[in-house]
Amino acid sequence: MAVQRVWNGEKPSVVIASYGFSRQIIYKWLREARGKGRGLRALISRKGTGRPRTLTPKQEQQLFRWINGKDPRQHGFDFGMWTRLIVRKLIADKFEANLGVTAIGKLLAKLGLTPQKPLKRAYERDPVAIEAWKTDVYPAIAKRAKKRGGEIFFWDESGFRSEAVQGKTWGVKGQTPIIFVPGTRQSVSAASAVNAKGGFWCATYKGGMNAELFIALLKAMMFRRKKPVLLILDSLPAHKAKIVKDYVASTEGKLEFHFLPGYAPELNPDEMVWNYMKRTGTARKPLSKGESLHNRIDAELQQIQENRVLVRSFFRAESVSYISD
């Protein structure tokens, strides 16, 4: 507008006074607009190009493929989790490009990668056996249960400690909050079995699991049951002891064992029971002075048993979706 007014005959000093900018700038604009084929188009603002990108779009996508679902050790690093420093070293090695740590973080965010707590999986896992369990073994068990008019239950055990604080609380940065818990340590073990229709059985006990205790728990679970039970569980030594096999045989088919593939706890919906309890129970409300951990766990298990909707929800987890397929 300033240039156009000067071109229309106004003095530069008058235009400067009306807009309030410096004398130098209007003469710079007049020079830029002067010349054949230039005019006011030369004054149109343009988006700055900024610093040219270090990696090409093709290189960025290649980086995404190297990181997504992969282990840094596959690229020769001795650390099993991706950090910005390791990604920086990977880029330097593969593309001979040097990016700062902050730029690496922005690049990863641009690629849709975020820092996450990884799930742990044992080296000894057998992917073939796990896939066979989902597609062949479990469907066969379900078919057998239907034919016999029986019920499928998933069994698992867990332990609880009074001093374990698995939840989080807010506090001032740099000042770790303090949670007061009983000075006397308490521990209790628990076993449970879940059914996709909302059935739930549970018991608490002291110490570790052994064959004799396992049989006693099985007898308590089977007491007054009319339908056959097809029990799916892991391969804990106590579960496979000879006296346990003898007890199962003595039930004359009323109780059957079926074992999950090794090192695949995520296939067991009963794991969700313990995850739920450790997220919402003693983790959120530490024991009061003089309170018994055993009584607390008994009460929390009883609440789960009375909530069939909650029990059925454990079977909606993605890792156990094969059960309802």
Furnish the topology, listing elements before pairings:
Blueprint: H1 2-7, H2 12-19, H3 23-33, H4 57-67, H5 84-95, H6 101-110, H7 127-148, E1 151-161, E2 187-194, E3 200-205, H8 211-222, E4 229-233, H9 242-250, E5 255-259, H10 271-280, H11 293-305, H12 308-313
Helix pairs in contact: 5-6
Instruction: Look at the structure and name the CATH superfamily of the largest domain.
Output: Ribonuclease H-like superfamily/Ribonuclease H
Low-confidence stretches: none
* Count of the separate structural domains: 3
Beta-sheet strand percentage?
A: 5-15%
Fold-level CATH name of the largest domain:
Nucleotidyltransferase, domain 5
Which value, in Å, is the CA radius of gyration? 34 Å
- Net shape: elongated
**Lateral strand order in the biggest sheet:** 3-2-1-4-5
Tags for this model:
single chain, Nucleotidyltransferase, domain 5, five-stranded mixed β-sheet, 40% helix, elongated
What can you tell me about this protein's structure?
By secondary structure, the chain is an alpha/beta fold. It has 3 domains: 2-43, no CATH class; 57-110, no CATH class; 127-167 and 180-323, 2-Layer Sandwich (Nucleotidyltransferase, domain 5), CATH 3.30.420. It has 12 helices and 5 strands. Strands 3-2-1-4-5 form a 5-stranded mixed sheet, with helices on both faces. α9 links the parallel β4 and β5 (255-259). The protein starts with a helix and ends in a 12-residue tail after the last helix. 15% of the residues are buried. The model has no long low-confidence stretch (mean pLDDT 87).
